[in-house]
Amino acid sequence: MLLPTVDQWKRSTLLCIGACAIVLAVASCGSSQVVRAPESKPDSLLTYDEAILRLDDWRMRIRKLEDDDQKMQGEVKALEERLNAAVAELKRCQDETNKLIGATDAQINQFRERLGRLEGRIRELRALNDNDFEARRSEVYALAAEWNRLRNEKIAVLPEFFDRMIAARRDIQSLMDRKPAWRGKYVVRPWSESKDCLWNIAGQSEVYGDPFHWPKIWQANTDLIKNPDIIQPGWELNVPPPGPLTPEEKRAERRYWRKKRQAMAAQQEQAMQQSQATPSPTGESTERGEKRP
Q1: 263 SS3 class
Q2: Which SS3 state, helix, strand or coil, does residue 29 take?
Q3: How remote is the C-alpha of 248 from its chain's centroid?
Q4: What count of other Cβ atoms lies within 10 Å of the Cβ of residue 111?
């Protein structure tokens, strides 16, 4: 085999270098002309080079999303393990608590149902208007009795029920304190049954809840009531709307107490005169009827 001469080797080397330069120049010229297309440009309008770049971009995004997904799956698995451990610990605590109060799961479920029914009846009564509530006021006391029965069970102290029991008691008390609707009429009942007088009637919760407002009833029924100290069973009295005493009602009350004091003073004077006029068992009478010690 004949070896190339030095000149031949130089020429072949130069030819190779030139060919490489041309290839690199063409490649560099071609790549410098490819620009990433904007996101708003539809795929159907992309050039071949732009489409290749867009595909490469989407492949990178997909790989990133896959990596993020794997990372999140790992975090979810770790959280599930922590959750399962917490649930197991909670179940252990519940079992120990049930053991302390001597209750089974069935008894706790039964208590839960009873408390739920009680709360439902409370909500139902609280939603009634005044007239409908008055017709069912007696049910409030049944709710209070049921609450007391639940309270006497040890299950009531469990965290699941403790706050609910307190809220139920507060709601029942608000129903008990709910004032009856004002009706505008009151029928006087016998004294032996109800101790009805203007003072006691005004003090009833379904009237004013304040006995000092008795002059309002008196002044609204002057056609019947001539003496505020005397009312008859069976009288149907007009009851004005609740509110402070009017100036006329205040003046009537002052007149009443002034006459009351005058009558009491007259009675005391009369009693004193009678005591002075009564003969003494040991005294001697003069011609004028005066008694001596």
Answers
A1: helix
A2: helix
A3: 43
A4: 19
Output the pLDDT for position 29.
Answer: 45
Residue 59 to residue 66: CA distance in whole angstroms: 10
Contact present, 154 and 101 (Cβ < 8 Å)? yes
Cβ pair 171, 127 in contact under 8 A: no
Say if CB 115 and CB 161 are below 8 A apart: yes
- Distance of alpha carbon 260 from alpha carbon 193, whole angstroms: 27
Instruction: Please report, for residues 267, 269, 277, the alpha-carbon distance to residue 273 in angstroms, rounded to integers and kept in the order given.
Output: 10, 6, 6
- What's the pLDDT tens digit per position in 127-165? 998 878 888 888 999 999 999 999 999 999 898 899 999
Residue 155 burial (10 A CB sphere; 0-12, 13-18, 19+): buried
Q: How far apart are the first and last CA of the chain?
A: 183
pLDDT in tens, 48-61: 888 999 899 999 99
Q: Which two tokens stand for residue 154?
A: 């040890």
